Amino acid sequence: MNILEKVRALLGEGALLEAGIDRVPRIAPGSPDAVALLLGTAHQEGWRVRIEGAGTWLASDAPADLALTTRRLDRIPAVEPQDLTATVEAGIGLDQLRQQLADRGAWLAVDPPGLAGRTLGSVVATATAGPLRQGFGPIKDHLLGVTFVTGDGRMVQSGGRVMKNVAGYDLTRLQAGGFGAFGVIVLVHLRLRTLPRADVTYVLEGSRDDLTQVAEDIAAAGLTPAALELVSPALARRERWVLAVRLAGSPQLVAADETGLGAATGGGGRFTALRAEEAHGFWMRLAEGFAVRPVTFRIGSVPTASDELLDLLQHQVGDEWVSASPAAGVIRWSGETSVDRLQRLRRTLAGLEAPLTLERAAWPVRHAVGHFGAYREGAGPLVAGLRRTFDPSGALVVATDGE
Amino acid sequence: MTALAEDLGGIVGARHVRVARAERATYAMDGLPTHRRLPDVVVLPGSREELIAIIRLLAAHRIPFVPRGAGTGLSGGALAGAGAVLVVLTRLNRIVKVDPKNRLAIVEPGVVNARLSAAARPHGLHYAPDPSSQTACTIGGNVAENAGGPHCLKYGVTANHVLALEVVLASGQTVELGSPGGEPWGPDLVGLFVGSEGNFGVATRITVRLTPLPRAVRTLLADFMALRAAGEGVSAIIAAGIVPAALEMMDQSCIQAVEDSVYAAGYPRDAAAVLLVELDGRSDDAVVPEADAVVALLKQAGARVVRTAADESERERLWQGRKKAFGAMGRLSRDLVVQDAVVPRSKLPDVLDTIAEIARRHRLVVSNVFHAGDGNLHPNISFDATDAAVRARVEEASGEIMAACIAAGGTITGEHGIGLDKLRYMPLVFDAESLGAMQAVRRVFDPEERVNPGKVVPVHACREWSGRTDPGRKPGVDHPRAVARGQPVLSL
């Protein structure tokens, strides 16, 4: 039997989707158990498996014997608005999840880059937080637990469904940002917030230097915006750089922060308030802007290094498509560049204590550069050991370290 | 152990090695009185270099060891049994750097939690995780246990505040994890390390995030004539989308213990429960309206009186009663088991009823003081451990409380860790495959399982994961599996 026949016998005809342009068979297991069955078989048969979500973020181009897509794992087994928790299958699209949560007055406070249908599993596996990381933290802070399937088909639970949990080692944090190297996430337990009753966005245009200073003033004033994002002109579709401030929460809190924003920045008149639909469009364009160019990466640093790193990017790879959370020390870059430049940039940044994580690129670039790759002293063997533990035969095709 | 003690003395100086039984007895317990283990040798390194030299010496002889901070833990996690060396880190107590611009600090593991906040205070910053033992517990211990505290409701637990670590593995190799900005160099090994209860190695240098001190604070005390009504008050606040800095509950037994002690805070003695609610923010403009909303919600839930602390000294008094409640409960009887479990917040009223019923049935005094906003319960059982029959009842009641919390959708620990105390409950929350995965991860960091052996994962309950250790090699002393098979509970 060939692979397709074996998978058909294993999971049924319904699990077989149309292959992509590279003709790699695409399999969509309908349950976590089916994922475990498929990966257990792949391990035994020596098949190489690439992991896919909706196919809207990472290109479906890794060489593999089959593609495992989570898109049929799209159920929401539980939403508990009173407890502000939810249990969600990993293949659900974020747009669909947001709507279902909003109907119950709940909110998942993440706004990752990508198109609307991007799956939750993709966001968790790549730890791609958006501007809301400023107010609500990185992706891992929204996770109470995950269930994942290892490369040899074992189903592992980590964490739980409650707000605090220190039972056992925190394998959830290993999975968040693991890019699938340690297994396929099938179920996610989420920490939610109540849907903010007030949600406003202010923008200010200016030179990068001036806006950087304004961002520093806002942070120094003790304001805690939900987002504080410095956006390049092309990405913001404006003439000049834009500093966007999002305030979200109770009407009283937002009103107090609006007053504080004015005081901290020399008069509220400098900022322009966006209407609700304008604000929605602004943040959506920003998210989508990172999903359409060939390469996207993020850099993390201490906040005071943000400006220097933006200069560095400008010189080495350009700064046309850049967005930064200066107070959180995170920069996201998108554009076209070469393997050589990326490798050189990563080395330079490593010297500045700023990790570069390659988020999106075509397979040849991912394979050469790696999502990770500039480990500090002693960490490389640990990552390799964890990889062997969770994927002993290397069935999962993930470009972790590059060449 | 004499030759070993001499070798250790050669590294740290003889006066920092404890071999006399009376000296070692000081380290036989942590904050939980139901476990006791006497280490063979205790060594207290005074520098990072000494610590690394000790670990390399122990690696060369393949001797198990247990890292320990101030010994304030509540799970028997920092106890070393026969054949193991206890490495006490309290002399590694330097605050290496406070960087106010980037809101971070670099510390050694033996720095006391409250001391770090005191050092950050002149810069308008503090270290947010605030376990009740914060005046004694160390940052290294906090990292090992992923410690929480009352204000973690708004600010997050230790894992949310650790940016980077320098770690010494069991082999003696140093490893750098994380970066000062918090972005990992690859997978989040800092997140994996925090809360690993010492099983993955010893953190020698810890970079933590500092948080701005709130400029406006309102502290409220609400008293209720029914425990259930207080639980409903908690649910009402959370459902309204208000995130207090802290939301703590104490029941009548706890209130009376506090009011009878030197920590008396003015809690109403006749109340079935009190809620201590703190709201903070940038300005009164931001905080006062939320405080008003909370007062209205609590009254609606049945609060008899909601009082606002008039000034900082009243606020401190209210908090002292809460933070010293465990100490105050020491008055109730000879021994105290501080339990730790988490349930969904909406299940608090039902689970509190169940705990009261379990206490009645086993004829035990159970006092509740806990982080209600997180659903993180601390049912505390007061008892006399010299009475074997009472000890058996405590044991049984503890198991039933854990089972009730699990049945409600919760878990067995929110901030105290597994240690020895909760080992037996791990198979109730994780299947054999998941426990096997944890054990396999541990072996990546410590293939011989020599660091803090016999803690966290009950090895006998694991499904075996292949090929990570060399079965021909056995650690020199006290094979960890043998430790794990023992019955660790109530070993006084």
Polypeptide structure, described:
The complex is a heterodimer of chains A (403) and B (492). Chain A is globular. Chain A has four domains: 3-69, Uridine Diphospho-n-acetylenolpyruvylglucosamine Reductase, domain 2 (2-Layer Sandwich); 78-194, Uridine Diphospho-n-acetylenolpyruvylglucosamine Reductase, domain 3 (2-Layer Sandwich), CATH 3.30.465.10; 198-289, Alpha-Beta Plaits; 295-363, Alpha-Beta Plaits. The mean pLDDT of chain A is 95. The two termini of chain A are 34 Å apart. Helices cover 34% and strands 23% of the residues of chain A. Chain A contains 14 helices and 19 strands. Chain A has an eight-stranded antiparallel sheet. Chain A has a five-stranded antiparallel sheet with strand order 5-6-10-8-9. Chain A has 403 residues and is of the alpha+beta class. In chain A, a hairpin with a 5-residue loop joins β8 and β9. Chain B is α+β, with helices and mostly antiparallel strands and 492 residues long. Chain B folds into four domains: 1-213, 2-Layer Sandwich (Uridine Diphospho-n-acetylenolpyruvylglucosamine Reductase, domain 3); 216-321, Alpha-Beta Plaits (2-Layer Sandwich), CATH 3.30.70; 333-407, Alpha-Beta Plaits (2-Layer Sandwich), CATH 3.30.70; 434-485, no CATH class. Helices cover 34% and strands 19% of the residues of chain B. Chain B contains 17 helices and 20 strands. Chain B has helices at 2-12, 21-25, 48-61, 113-120, 139-145, 152-155, 189-193, 227-239, 252-259, 284-300, 312-323, 325-329, 348-361, 388-407, 426-429, 432-445, 480-485; strands at residues 17-18, 41-43, 65-68, 85-88, 95-99, 104-107, 125-126, 162-168, 174-178, 202-209, 211-212, 216-224, 246-251, 273-281, 305-308, 335-338, 341-342, 365-370, 376-377, 379-383. Chain B has a seven-stranded antiparallel sheet with strand order 15-12-14-13-18-20-16, sandwiched between helices. A five-stranded antiparallel sheet of chain B has the order 5-6-10-8-9. Chain B has a four-stranded mixed sheet with strand order 1-2-4-3. In chain B, α8 runs antiparallel to α13. The longest helix of chain B is centred in the last third of the chain and has 20 residues, at 388-407. The radius of gyration of chain B is 23 Å and the shape is globular. Chain B starts with a helix and ends in a 7-residue tail after the last helix. The model of chain B is unreliable at 467-492 (pLDDT under 50). At the A-B interface, β9, α6, β11, α9 and β16 of A face β9, α7, α8, α10 and α16 of B.
